[in-house]
Design a protein that fits this description.
This protein has about 90 residues and is mainly beta. It contains 1 helix and 8 strands. Strand 3 and strand 4 form a beta hairpin. The longest helix has 4 residues. InterPro entries: DUF1653-like_dom (IPR023387), DUF1653-like_dom_sf (IPR037135).
């Protein structure tokens, strides 16, 4: 699963903007590229499987990152086959 472009809240409370996806140069693993919306606005990458997984907090399951606001602009998708997939906004 690839997360949609938009604003996400990490389960610890901070907000991030997903900029797109990329792939690891050696393993071809899909990665999520995202930017902190606080502090120095640093750029981060995380394996897509980890970005989309559920964590447990105080015995309750919740998403590691929860979508707060989807963006209508296209995110960059550089995963294999991305150029062959149809653009859903056409």
């Amino acid at each position: 699963m690839q997360p949609a472009a938009g604003i996400y809240r990490h389960y610890k409370g901070q907000r991030y903007r997903v900029l797109g996806t990329a792939q690891h140069s050696e393993t071809m693993e899909p990665l999520v590229v995202y930017q902190a919306l606080y502090g120095d606005f640093g750029l981060w990458v995380r394996p897509a499987t980890m970005f989309c997984e559920t964590v447990e907090l105080d015995g309750e399951p919740l998403p590691r990152f929860a979508l707060e606001q989807a963006e209508t602009t296209l995110a960059l998708d550089h995963t294999p086959g991305a150029a062959d997939r149809e653009d859903p906004q056409r």
